[in-house]
């Protein structure tokens, strides 16, 4: 009960802080504060930083014809400016005001694309530039827009007349001053880090006193040291955040070099840690493991980032600060979540997936987590975050962590994770020819009196993954049949995998031109049930799951095994 009270107190403290933060933001957007954002207009853009995000000239053409495919949704404006129409999709609006789509105009490389980019920026300045409110001026969106305007200033200003040139620089300066005033009070997490990145870009790309660059560099270093963990993960434990932040940090490092300025050691160190971390989360087909907010992977985006990784050899196997383990040999990769939930402040995307794992063989995924539908309906998010959507165990169909359902809380904070394991113990058990670990969490201890322990071993050159799931009471006390000891161990199968039954009644996982794996269990007869895979590129897909269902009072420990019986001949792990 003390733990619940502590979580509740922490949650309402965060609600109060966020309410006060939003109140101060409204005050700073009012006429009393707005004069502080005025000042000297920069004369020019000194340098346009590079942009590593993928660009498609075809999207520039779509935008020219009034079709905006943003955030997974296509909106046709019917000849109007996109800033004039009311689109109810929040994600689409945030992407529109973030202006990252300017990269497609730059990729098109035509005068028509440049003129269209300039017209759209002019529309934004006219409709939103002098009225600091709404989605357009959310600090996180403002940071994205500042970076995008600087990165693609060459295409926006191509052929521009002096009045637009001046208006562009004036608006940019106002946004930078506004973001500088808001950055320190932004909620914890990647948006606050991106704000510091944007301000460093601005200090390098526009004429500014040396003190401005020193201050931006110092603040960036402090945020990087706080948010990027020693093993290269992010405090949110979301693999996607590592990718997103690297896509900003790598161009920033290059911009420091281009301006003959020494980047802070914190920036160099963060990149050097994060690139191996990205490889740690990467399966052999190039996709990232689906944990804590990770959805579908755009493979080319990761490949572009990893071109900057000069480290050699196989990925690391142990990420203790981020709370993940990796087993890898013979073309087989297993990635598992063995960590505590992230801090409440940065848990909006966190999942209740403790001790869940994914298995890929060659370039095909076999055992997965459901992931999230990145651009899909918000009502599916709670389902994707639940323990049942992960390849791990649930007790009494209950998640190992809890999420808020209070409208008052969600209005202020989103949907943070407010309960979960307080202790997760993990020990590597590697031996010659064997990669393995044993981990245990107490996420069910307070409610049901159980600890869940999982032992995974990958051996025989990657041909055998042996697992053991054990359920015990503290002190190895007897488990009683009290109606609260029902266990379900789930193994979600990737939608591309065929799940068959052979002549020995074993479950066979196979796909065209891919390896074949056989699932067996010694204590419990496996069942097959329907499931849903949220992380498909085209949205959710139906799939199936292998289920071991039993009472812990009858079976306190189950052993299961996945055995590769034929190999399609894919290359070894990179």
From TrEMBL:
Residues 313-561 form the Heparinase II/III-like C-terminal domain. It comes from the Bacteria. The keyword Lyase applies. Transmembrane segments: none annotated. Keywords: Lyase, Periplasm, Signal. It is found in: Periplasm. Pfam families: Hepar_II_III_C (PF07940). This is Heparinase II/III family protein.
């Amino acid at each position: 009960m003390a733990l619940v009270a502590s979580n509740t107190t922490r949650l309402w403290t965060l609600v109060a802080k966020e309410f006060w933060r939003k109140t101060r933001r409204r005050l700073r957007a009012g006429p009393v504060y707005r004069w502080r954002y005025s000042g000297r207009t920069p004369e020019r853009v000194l340098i346009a930083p590079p942009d590593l995000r993928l660009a498609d000239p075809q999207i520039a053409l779509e935008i020219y014809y009034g079709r905006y495919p943003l955030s997974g949704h296509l909106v046709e404006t019917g000849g109007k400016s996109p800033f004039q129409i009311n689109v109810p999709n929040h994600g689409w609006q945030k992407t529109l005001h973030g202006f990252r789509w300017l990269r497609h105009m730059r990729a098109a490389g035509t005068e028509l694309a440049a003129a269209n980019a300039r017209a759209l920026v002019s529309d934004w300045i006219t409709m939103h530039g002098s009225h600091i409110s709404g989605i357009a001026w959310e600090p996180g969106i403002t940071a994205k827009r500042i970076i995008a305007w600087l990165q693609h200033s060459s295409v926006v200003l191509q052929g521009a007349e002096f009045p637009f040139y001046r208006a562009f620089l004036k608006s940019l300066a106002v946004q930078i001053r506004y973001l500088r005033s808001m950055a320190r009070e932004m909620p914890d997490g990647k948006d606050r880090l991106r704000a510091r990145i944007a301000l460093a870009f601005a200090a390098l790309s526009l004429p500014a006193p040396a003190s401005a660059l020193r201050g931006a560099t110092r603040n960036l270093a402090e945020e990087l040291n706080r948010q990027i963990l020693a093993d290269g993960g992010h405090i949110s434990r979301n693999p996607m955040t590592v990718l997103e932040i690297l896509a900003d940090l790598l161009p920033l490092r290059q911009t420091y070099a281009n301006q003959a300025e020494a980047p802070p050691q914190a920036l160099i160190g963060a990149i050097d840690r994060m690139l191996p971390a990205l490889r740690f989360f990467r399966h052999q087909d190039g996709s990232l493991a689906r944990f804590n907010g990770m959805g579908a992977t755009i493979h080319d985006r990761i490949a572009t980032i990893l071109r900057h990784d000069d480290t050699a050899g196989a990925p690391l196997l142990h990420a203790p600060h981020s709370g993940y383990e990796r087993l890898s040999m013979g073309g087989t990769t297993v990635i598992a979540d063995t960590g505590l939930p992230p801090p409440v402040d940065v848990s909006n995307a966190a999942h209740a997936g403790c001790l869940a794992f994914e298995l890929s063989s060659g370039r095909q995924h076999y055992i997965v987590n459901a992931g999230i539908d990145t651009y899909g309906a918000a009502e599916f998010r709670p389902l994707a975050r639940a323990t049942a959507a992960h390849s791990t165990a649930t007790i009494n169909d209950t998640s190992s962590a809890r999420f808020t359902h209070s409208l008052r809380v969600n209005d202020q904070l989103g949907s943070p994770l407010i309960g979960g394991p307080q202790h997760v113990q993990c020990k590597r058990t590697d031996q010659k020819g064997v990669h393995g670990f044993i981990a245990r969490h107490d996420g069910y201890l307070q409610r049901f009196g159980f600890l869940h322990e999982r032992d995974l071993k990958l051996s025989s050159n990657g041909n055998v993954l042996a697992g053991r799931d054990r359920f015990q009471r503290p002190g190895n006390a007897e488990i009683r049949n009290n109606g609260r000891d029902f266990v379900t161990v789930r193994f979600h199968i990737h939608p591309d995998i065929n799940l068959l039954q052979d002549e020995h009644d074993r479950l066979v996982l196979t796909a065209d031109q891919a390896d074949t794996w056989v699932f067996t269990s010694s204590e419990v007869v496996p069942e097959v049930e329907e499931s849903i895979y949220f992380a498909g590129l085209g949205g959710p897909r139906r799939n199936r799951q292998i289920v071991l269902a039993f009472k812990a009072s009858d079976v306190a420990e189950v052993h299961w095994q996945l055995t590769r019986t034929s190999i399609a001949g894919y290359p070894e792990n990179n």
